[in-house]
Amino acid sequence: MKRLLIMLFVVATFGLASCRDDDNSNNSNNTNNTNNTNNTNNQDGDTIAMVQDPSNPNFLSDGETVNLKSVVVTAIDRYGDYTGSFWVSENTTAPYEGVGVYNFDTSAQWWTDLQLGDLINVTGIKTEYNYNDEFDDAVTQITEPVVQRLGTGNPIDPVSIQASDLLTVEDGEQWEGVLVTLSNVRVGEVGERDGRYEVSLYQSTKAQDDMADLSSINQGECLSKFTGIVTYFFGYYLMPRSASDIEVAADDSACPTVANEICDNEIDDDGNGFTDCDDFACTGDPACPAKVENTDELCADGNDNDDDGVADCDDPSCYGHPDVTICVEESCTDEVDNDGDGYTDCEDFDCAQDVACDGSFETNCTDGNDDDGDTYFDCDDMDCNDDPACIETICDDEVDNDGDEHTDCEDFDCLYSDAACQVDQEVTDEQCSDDTDNDGNGFTDCEDFSCQRSPLTTICEGNAITCADGVDNNDNGFVDCGDFACRYCDTNNPDNNRVVSTCPPCSSN
Fold this sequence. Notes:
The protein is mainly beta. 8% of the residues lie in helices and 18% in strands. It contains seven helices and 14 strands. The strands form three sheets. It has a five-stranded mixed beta barrel with strand order 1-2-3-5-4. A hairpin with a 2-residue loop joins β7 and β8. The protein starts with a helix and ends in a 10-residue tail after the last strand.
């Protein structure tokens, strides 16, 4: 999912950037070697602190024009599928004195010539990017940039910070966009994660391969130096610029020894900023019972047991869960939403078979008529989804028995019920955990929608059961409705929203 999330992030911002008008005629491409000392605190323009530091008396608001003079290039993204962005700083690295410039114009001459240490002028728009308003810390960027390259300079040194400085917003915000170095950090888990190579750092944050190949880093290594630009995407992480930003320590004992999280001692044993049951390492531990609301007992106790902001029959985990029987419309004529699902009386599917609601639902699914007047009839009407006439029960007769334009194994009714249809598919626990793209659609195991949505899988987040069991089924660090496989809300394009029935609906605001 992260791969999809990142792609959506890039596409959304690219739409903003596409209307920029880079004025390449402003490029001076000065051939003189202009040293960084020529930067006089941007007296003729804005400072990066005015962009990043809320305590600055001249702090710029989101959407205001930014005019930076003689700032120093600290990082350039020329690696991977999405390139063009770069980062700048004042002539020394310090808190709140680095910022990213979101650029995709890689055809401009200034971009071709751009090098680390260059002095440039940048004019653009200050943009606070917050994906679906779900970040704890919006990412500050300069978008729609017009760049003037003044000439070459001296690359500046990173600022040394503590490994723990990137674990919280309170500590990490000041370093966003800044080139920093961590010293003597131990490497935790490494490897592919949602299509990207990721390196976790013990008692600190993680690093990802945005600007450089990190696959040479080995789990357990002690790194005497780890340098990169700080950015944020559901947490802070580092972006090393090249292999030279990473140094393996000659003395392994210089780094701390990794400890496992003990889930009931109120200590952050593994030093990742999360303690006991708040640490994903404790998911499934007997000391940390799952936070769920998916039984008749839990849906009638008046408590928000799964901490999603709604309780009992107001919670989709109750009224949408197949095992919960109490959250139903008790009366179809009292003008009361008895089960709290937002639908009253004959508007509620619970009343489909009530005689008082004749004409409100498609009651005959084979008569060729639109019985309820909603412009859908028979098996094309959702009211008929569970009608035997609308379920493909013969899966090898080459006939579209239920009239849904899907025949035999192409019909989900067969795919999930007939063993012969599961050959070369990706719908069972076995098929969704074998590291093989069984159905040849380019997605493997839990990254495949068929694994996420299949009622036959228990190891992938994405269906009504796995999105309400309190378990990180696909082991990606996100549980139930916190996983995009269960609940994805796109505020820019609601048509992209995907929400499993046991998760809260996307806000209509």
